[in-house]
Amino acid sequence: MTLSRLADTEKLKPVCQYGDMSGTHKLTSVLAAFAMTAAVLSGCTPGTAAQTEPTPTDPAATADSKPATETTTSEASEPSCSGMSQVYGYEEGLYQEREGTLQDLGARDYARGEVTVDEDGTPVTYTVEPGDVEAVIAERLCAYPTLGSMNHVRTIQPGQVLWLTPDPESPWVPYYSPSDAEEGFQQIPYQQAIESAGAAVDAGDVDRVRTIWNDTLKGMFTDQGTISAVQQVVDSGDLDGLRQLFS
């Protein structure tokens, strides 16, 4: 057998094995060296099977082959008003009552003041912070924006405590003018007297409130029913009643 035929015979083996070479025909050192060279070139090592290099994986293909995983993120719903609360007046506006429940949806830009609540968690008062806007306060509390006039002011001021729910059993007087005011009524002196009475109430000065009512405000009203109802609260000196009237 020639050297080339022997080499061809070695190439036909399924795996490159070099075990016992004893027998009738012993390869010469030249043939052994040749066979070793062929083994190295074919990626085989003595006594081991031929191995196939792993094929690099395309990252894009791997990403495409993975099953899509849907991630659902549950975001907490922002609080919202169940309805808008509004204050209604009856008996010529002398008595007021709130319909609908106030809610505090939390501090926000232009409505960062402190809210006090009753035992049921219903807002009772709101303390105005610098930069607060009446409409945004009302939005926060689920109320129509009538909080300023209901508290006898044209414009809310920092530090002012807004009373949110009137007592329907106690009288209240309008801030801008009496409900039965005639055309040409002097609105500015009336409002100034209301504001002065409100400041006296906040200071707890009942005597000052009585003086303002008896000497100034009383003469601006013409309806005897209104005058009698207000006079009764003024004479009682009840601060909550006076607050609802003027503050």
What do these coordinates show?
The structure is a single chain. The strands form 2 sheets. Strands 3-4-5 form a 3-stranded antiparallel β-sheet. A two-stranded antiparallel ribbon has the order 1-2. 36% of the residues lie in helices and 9% in strands. The chain is built from 9 helices and 5 strands; from the N terminus they run αααββββααβαααα. The N and C termini lie far apart (124 Å). By secondary structure, the chain is mainly alpha-helical. The protein folds into 3 domains: 3-50, no CATH class; 82-169, no CATH class; 178-247, no CATH class. Helix 6 packs antiparallel against helix 7 (206-217) and helix 6 (187-202) runs antiparallel to helix 9 (239-246). The protein has helices at residues 3-11, 29-41, 59-65, 134-140, 147-150, 187-202, 206-217, 224-236, 239-246, and strands at residues 86-90, 95-99, 114-117, 123-127, 161-163.
